[in-house]
# Entry
Amino acid sequence: MTTVYETMYILRPDLGEEQVEQAITKYQNLLREQGAEDIQIQNRGKRRLAYEIKKHRDGIYIQFNYIAPATVVAPLERAMRLSEEVIRYMTIKQEVQEAKPAKVGAATE
# Structure
């Protein structure tokens, strides 16, 4: 069964534009290899962190929205945990409202 997920991660603020693109591509490819589909990427840019993380006050926020089986999340988060460029990450399962079918034969008067 596939589910809709959102993964938000924060990259170190000292990374160059090219390094940021490489990191995005790396995780996007990892998702594809694991069977994720409809990957939407949003680079939210450099922002001030609410509190210091690993001696950084700023971070580059990246958001992925994708449809994937549940087995995708663990390898993605493991790669981010072992990465030098990612300072924080979080994946949440999206609640998707399915359209309810209209009642058949309902009187409309």
Remarks:
- The chain has a mean pLDDT of 89.
- The radius of gyration is 18 Å.
